[in-house]
């Protein structure tokens, strides 16, 4: 089983939670795609310190390759904190965040496990994702365990997510703008 998170490794993006979950599930492979070379090196060092053998930080990949990684995953994580760093220079976006990753995850047709943040619920819902309180490791572990143990639920969530993604396509957005939405 593969659990994937894609994106930068700024503060609040959930890398700590990601590693804690990896420790709970040594039978699953945890893969993080994205992040600067410096951040990836720091998190790889943390993986070594924790002696985790089921975690890989791949670093930055061309955007065109991300769908392949999404498709290879069984569960896609959005473990954002209540305060999300928006850049290495600081600032936070938890109140206004609408990460492209969320729409890419929907389109991938995979189960999504996301932080229960109001801004994510503007797009995701119970039929397309499983929500957990940010930074509550036990809740995340229970939710991930339930998903990993239930391939039919993962498949159903993924199918509904892919259907929901259609309303967020660039074509659909252009149609809404032209219609005076």
Spell out the key features of this protein.
six-stranded parallel sheet; single chain; 8 helices; alpha/beta; 181 residues
Please explain how this structure is put together.
The protein is an alpha/beta fold. The protein is built from 8 helices and 6 strands. It has a 6-stranded parallel beta sheet with strand order 3-2-1-4-5-6, sandwiched between helices. Helix 5 links the parallel strand 5 and strand 6. The longest helix is centred in the last third of the chain and has 15 residues. The termini are far apart. About 4% of the residues have low confidence.
List the helices and strands and how they pair.
Blueprint: E1 2-6, H1 15-24, E2 29-33, H2 37-49, E3 55-59, H3 66-72, E4 75-78, H4 100-108, E5 111-115, H5 118-121, E6 130-132, H6 137-148, H7 151-165, H8 170-178
Parallel strand pairs: 1-2, 1-4, 2-3, 4-5, 5-6
Assembly state here?
single chain
Residue fraction in strands: 5-15%
State the helicity in percent bands.
Answer: 40-55%
Q: What is the typical, i.e. mean, pLDDT?
A: 90
Treating each run of at least 4 consecutive H or I residues as one helix, how many helices?
Answer: 8
Low-confidence stretches: 90-96
Largest sheet: 6 strands, parallel
Strands of the widest sheet, in order across it, are 3-2-1-4-5-6
Please identify the structural class as seen in this structure.
alpha/beta
Order of helices and strands: EHEHEHEHEHEHHH
Gyration radius, to the nearest Å? 16 Å
Inertia-based shape:
globular
Number of strands: 6
Distance between the termini: 41 Å
């Amino acid at each position: 089983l593969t659990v994937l998170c894609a994106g930068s490794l700024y503060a609040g993006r959930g890398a700590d939670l990601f590693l804690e979950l990896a420790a709970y599930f040594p039978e699953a492979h945890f893969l993080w795609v994205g992040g600067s070379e410096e951040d990836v090196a720091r998190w790889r060092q943390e993986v070594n310190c924790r002696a985790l053998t089921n975690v890989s930080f791949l670093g930055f990949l061309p955007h065109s390759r991300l769908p392949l990684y999404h498709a290879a995953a069984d569960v896609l994580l959005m473990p954002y904190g209540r305060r999300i760093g928006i850049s290495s220079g600081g600032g936070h976006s938890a109140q206004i965040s609408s990460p492209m990753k969320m729409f890419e995850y929907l389109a991938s047709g995979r189960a999504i496990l996301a932080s229960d943040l109001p801004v994510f619920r503007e797009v995701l819902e119970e039929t397309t994702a499983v929500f957990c309180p940010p930074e509550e490791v036990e809740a995340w572990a229970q939710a991930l365990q339930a998903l990993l143990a239930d391939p039919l639920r993962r498949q159903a969530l993924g199918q509904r997510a892919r259907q929901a993604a259609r309303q967020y396509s660039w074509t659909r957005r252009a149609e809404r703008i032209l219609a005076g939405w």
